[in-house]
Design goal:
This protein has helices at 171-184, 264-276, 278-281, 297-312, 349-366, 371-394, 401-422, 426-434, 450-459, 468-490, 517-526, 529-542, 567-572, 595-605, 627-630, 634-650, and strands at 2-7, 11-13, 16-18, 21-26, 38-41, 50-53, 64-66, 70-71, 79-82, 99-104, 110-115, 117-118, 137-140, 148-154, 158-159, 163-165, 212-215, 239-244, 259-260, 322-325, 342-344. The protein is α+β, with helices and mostly antiparallel strands and 651 residues long.
């Protein structure tokens, strides 16, 4: 016998914290149990007997892993995995070529059958070693296309959770859930009927007494960490004495009640989806306060961030990059009831380029839906670019190399966006100065970063305004990135994808979030189905086809994440809404800063095996106060998921 014990949520009683646990016991028997016969498991005194029957055409087995939401009928890449790790007893060995069937849950009929192929090969996933602790066998049932509900069942073993094959209740449902989850992250507005059952008073609004203090700090003060926030000790000593009444709005991250310029990434993804797939997204009703206006709801949600920064734009065009809380919330505090000071950053060139890029993209797309508003954003983008270009020439060129690189990459995104907006060839010159794509294709580090975004925007320009060789280099850069992702995916047993293979799987950089922005950008540019199929498989991992049989999105799947780090839920009991992807799998062995997790949380709760002895793809615990696993950010989680799931929904 072996045991795997894991926490599942957190409850507090009086002054003593207790952590609920789930214990999985594995019994190695000397013979196979008969199928279809009632068996009885007996225990020592004090534990009731358990009667059970194993039916390998219906009984759910924890060894069978599948996307718990399901697939579109025409998806390729419909797979289930067979694998089980038993803690100290190690992995289970299964015969190569194990028989499986796909069962229609409504009729019990077998609609397809086949044999598995073993996935484990090098035992070195992304160069990081054996991350599963067990063999993994794959059952491909891509030929099943009739709408319905199904299970994948393995002879003498058991079945997966049931899942749908449907055009509307799979990827589309997931994308809508992510967009609705974004609405629940809004700052500066109350939540409630008729738009949601979640009742939350309005947080961080000047009419309710919140004071937004202006500071002299910027997002580029630290050239080695551009975009840094949580500079709590610095805020009180860098105030100007001025206050702002227009700094409300934007979206929160998980446990942070701030609104950062990075959150504009969500609007960028939404604009792309509407522009590429208007039949799917232009009329999509998300039941928002803005629903019914001329603008697609998907864009309306993202404008909640862009409008914040348009209000904060200075008369000379400069844009700040953050509205930050002065500390984290204390026990019992909520986003709408706290004593936290709020501070507004000063404009900087990096933030202003980021704003100009998104405002220009919004102006292009909104021309078809609200021309007047589109023109306002176009004018605002031009003023932002004029200020940023002046600042670039005056200061940043002679600045630290790290800063020049960070700002230069963002400058390239902005220049490509302005070229798309205006068609003015002068922006080609700026783009060529800011990017090296004019010389050769780039080896992109990741594909939701600024280098990739600049290449993506330039690759999709009207050929009449782009320079042909640069555009070819941009396309090739994205294709190279996608090919590298395919090669990385081929090393994995569970067919997952990460955007940055060179860094540890920590803080949401692993496969729990459906990474693959670059894969689907290459698919859009080339039409090559290999990239889309790879994303189907990668997103399936995030939605349940993983060793933990967990969907890392709240409210999606049979066994979703249930305890995200949402301060208002933990401290005030606010319900957890669907559609939020958590950081998920995190390697606790990378940093000594994480030692407290095992010492003060996991070990005292009785977690077994120790975190250090747990394969990486099991290294996640559904415990809301572990930020490295259960936190999320609006740009990293919601924006990435919206794009990947949205493209799968529309294609």
């Amino acid at each position: 016998m072996s045991r795997v014990s894991r926490p599942n949520g957190q409850a507090t009683f009086g002054d003593e914290r207790t952590i609920p646990m789930i214990h999985d016991y594995y019994l190695q028997l000397d013979r196979a149990l008969p199928l279809g016969v009632e068996m009885v498991l007996s225990f020592a005194a004090g534990v009731e007997e358990v009667a059970f029957t194993i039916d390998d055409r219906s009984t759910v087995s924890p060894a069978v892993h599948v996307n718990q939401l399901g697939f579109r009928p025409d998806d390729t890449g419909k797979v289930a995995m067979l694998s089980e790790w038993r803690g100290a007893a190690g992995g289970v060995t299964y015969a190569d070529g194990t028989t499986f069937e796909v069962i229609d849950t409504a009729t019990g009929a077998t609609v397809a059958s086949g044999i598995t192929a073993r996935r484990t090969g090098t035992d070195d996933e992304y160069g990081k070693g054996d991350l599963t602790g067990s063999e993994v066998h794959e059952a491909d049932f891509s030929q099943v296309s009739a709408p319905g509900r199904y299970q994948v069942c393995f002879q003498a073993i058991g079945c997966s959770e049931s899942f749908a094959i449907s055009a509307d209740s799979t990827w589309r449902r997931a994308a809508v859930a992510v967009a609705r989850a974004a609405y629940h992250q809004r700052s500066g507005t109350a939540l409630g009927q008729p738009y949601t059952a979640v009742a939350r008073p309005r947080p961080f609004h000047p009419d309710d007494g919140t004071v937004f203090q202006q500071t002299t700090l910027t997002m580029i003060d630290d050239p080695t960490d551009v975009g840094r926030d949580d500079r709590f000790d610095e805020y009180p000593t860098h105030t100007t004495g001025d206050t702002r009444t227009d700094a409300w709005g934007g979206h929160f991250d998980a446990g942070d009640w701030n609104s950062r310029i990075q959150h504009l990434a969500y609007l960028g993804m939404a604009l792309d989806l509407v522009r590429l797939y208007p039949d799917t997204f232009a009329d999509l009703d998300l039941d928002l306060p803005e629903s019914g206006d001329d603008i697609p709801d998907l864009i309306d949600e993202g404008l909640w961030d862009l409008d914040l920064y348009r209000r904060l734009q200075n008369g000379d065009g400069g844009v700040p990059g953050n509205v930050d809380q002065g500390r984290f919330g204390d026990d019992g505090e909520s986003s709408w009831d706290n004593s936290i000071g709020v501070y507004v950053f000063a404009p900087d060139v990096w933030s202003t380029y980021a704003y100009a890029a998104t405002a220009a993209q919004a102006a292009v797309v909104l021309a078809a839906y609200d021309a007047d508003l589109g023109q306002e954003y176009a004018d605002s983008a031009r003023r932002a670019m004029e200020w940023a270009e002046s600042e670039w020439a005056a200061a940043v060129v002679s600045a630290d190399e790290d800063l020049r690189l960070e700002v230069g990459e963002q400058r390239a995104v902005a220049a490509a966006s302005m070229l798309a907006l205006t068609g003015d060839d002068a922006w080609n010159d700026v783009f060529g100065d800011a990017s090296t794509i004019d010389d050769a294709p780039l080896d992109l580090l990741d594909c939701d970063g600024p280098q990739c975004s600049a290449a993506w925007i330039y690759a999709r320009l009207d050929p009449s305004v782009a320079r042909a060789d640069w555009q070819a280099n941009a396309v090739e850069s994205i294709v190279r990135n996608a090919d590298a992702a395919l090669a990385g995916q081929a090393t994995t047993a569970f067919a997952w994808v990460i955007e940055r293979p060179d860094i540890p799987v920590v803080w949401g950089l692993g496969p729990s979030i459906p990474h693959g922005v670059g894969l689907l950008r290459a698919y859009v540019l080339t039409g090559d189905q290999r990239y889309r199929t790879a994303m189907v498989r990668a997103a399936s991992f995030s939605l349940g086809a993983n060793p933990l049989n967990t969907s890392f999105a709240t409210g999606l799947g049979t066994n979703p994440a249930r305890f995200p780090l949402i301060g208002d839920s933990i401290e005030q009991g606010l319900p957890v809404w669907p559609g939020t992807f958590q950081y998920g799998i995190h390697d606790l062995r990378v940093s000594s800063d994480d030692d407290w997790v095992d010492e003060f949380v996991l070990a005292p709760a009785g977690v077994q095996p120790d975190a250090a002895d747990t394969p990486l793809l099991w290294s996640w615990y559904d415990l809301g106060t572990l930020p490295m696993m259960n936190e999320f950010t609006f740009s990293q989680s919601h924006a990435v998921a919206l794009w990947t799931l949205g493209v799968l929904a529309a294609t």
